[in-house]
């Protein structure tokens, strides 16, 4: 068993990389196309890129992307958990735009990967290395605990299982179910149209502006850097689906959704609440996300982080996410 290092994903065969990701059931954030898009158009400041491939003979059995980041705190959560790391460079897997950390692997390789990460972090001059957004209690979480690394809570992400749309509605409370149906009816009466599009047919310039505006409303300025965001989404290709919600031609909500083998990720969205009519454009977008996930045959809806009240009301459950950092 040996660990190979590269500072660019372009040097790593996409078929080798994706075979490990697929066999491990890792989410879309680990696909070669996603990692490549992030290297080409990083959505946060990255000081250096690091990619690890573990091989037995010539066969890849594990892969891991990592990023040297000094300002690795776009949503402020990391430094709330690790105030002692403020302003210090850290080699982290993955970026904050991935909310479900994994080590795609077909064998127990974490100790070897941790050693490789620590050595690489030291070469980079980092003071910390580790993982963000590790789901508490999953395989990676347990392996990190066995390695003696303590976890600190960051935030929660939200998810639910899916079968049919009617079954999804039936899982909601009577009030929530009535609200969804009423919002659908009112939006139709208000002249709202909904379209699901591939990225190369979507109005990414409009969508970018809406996502940036929405993020700034929640004091997350810079979370979606305009030009980089559009390039990143374009580079995702068929990993991404775009939902546009328009009223009389005006874009009032948009979502960029990602898919892997079993999951539909409502990865990011933008919403303009200055609409005509008594309806919620965000509610329209969310309902269409559920319907699209079901049409695509995905069994899990991943709702991302934040907006706890809405997500609880609409049937999603929390997955506790931790940061696990090692001081070098």
Written account of the structure:
The chain has 328 residues and is of the alpha+beta class. It folds into two domains: 2-156 and 321-327, Gcn5-related N-acetyltransferase (GNAT) (Aminopeptidase); 163-298, Gcn5-related N-acetyltransferase (GNAT) (Aminopeptidase, 3-Layer(aba) Sandwich), CATH 3.40.630.30. The chain has helices spanning 14-24, 32-40, 77-81, 110-124, 139-146, 165-170, 174-189, 204-217, 226-236, 281-295, 308-313, and strands at 2-6, 48-56, 59-69, 90-93, 128-135, 152-161, 192-197, 240-247, 250-259, 263-271, 300-305, 317-327. It has a twelve-stranded mixed β-sheet with strand order 1-2-3-4-5-12-6-11-10-9-8-7, sandwiched between helices. Helix 2 packs antiparallel against helix 9, helix 7 packs across helix 10 (281-295) and helix 8 (204-217) crosses helix 9. The chain is globular, with a radius of gyration of 20 Å. The two termini are 25 Å apart. Residues 176-312 form the BioF2-like acetyltransferase domain. This is BioF2-like acetyltransferase domain-containing protein. It holds the Pfam family Acetyltransf_6. InterPro entries: Acyl_CoA_acyltransferase (IPR016181), BioF2-like_GNAT_dom (IPR038740).
């Amino acid at each position: 068993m040996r660990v190979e290092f590269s500072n660019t994903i372009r040097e790593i065969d996409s078929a080798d990389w994706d075979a490990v990701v697929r066999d491990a059931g890792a989410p879309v954030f680990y696909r070669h196309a996603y990692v490549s898009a992030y290297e080409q158009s990083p959505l946060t400041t990255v000081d250096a890129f690091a990619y690890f491939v573990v091989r037995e003979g010539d066969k890849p059995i594990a892969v891991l992307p990592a990023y040297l980041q000094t300002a690795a705190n776009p949503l402020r959560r990391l430094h709330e958990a690790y105030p002692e790391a403020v302003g210090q460079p850290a080699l982290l897997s993955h970026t904050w735009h991935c909310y479900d950390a994994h080590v795609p692997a077909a064998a127990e390789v974490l100790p070897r990967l941790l050693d490789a990460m620590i050595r690489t972090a030291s070469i980079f001059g980092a003071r910390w290395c580790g993982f963000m957004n590790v789901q508490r209690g999953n395989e990676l979480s347990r392996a990190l605990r066995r390695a003696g690394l303590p976890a600190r809570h960051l935030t929660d992400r939200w998810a639910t299982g899916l079968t049919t749309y009617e079954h999804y509605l039936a899982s909601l409370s009577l009030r929530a179910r009535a609200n969804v149906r009423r919002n659908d009816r009112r939006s139709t009466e208000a002249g709202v149209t909904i379209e699901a599009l591939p990225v190369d047919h979507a109005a990414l310039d409009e969508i970018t502006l809406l996502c940036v505006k929405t993020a700034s409303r929640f004091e997350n300025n810079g979370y979606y850097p305009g030009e980089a965001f559009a390039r990143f989404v374009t580079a995702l290709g068929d990993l991404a689906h775009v939902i546009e919600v328009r009223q009389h031609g005006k874009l009032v909500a948009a979502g960029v959704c990602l898919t892997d083998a079993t999951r539909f990720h409502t990865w990011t969205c933008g919403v303009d609440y200055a609409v005509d009519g008594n309806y919620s454009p965000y509610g329209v977008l969310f309902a269409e996300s559920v319907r699209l996930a079901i049409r695509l045959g995905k069994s899990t809806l991943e709702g991302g982080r934040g907006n706890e009240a809405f997500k609880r009301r609409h049937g999603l459950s929390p997955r506790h996410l931790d940061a696990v950092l090692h001081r070098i």
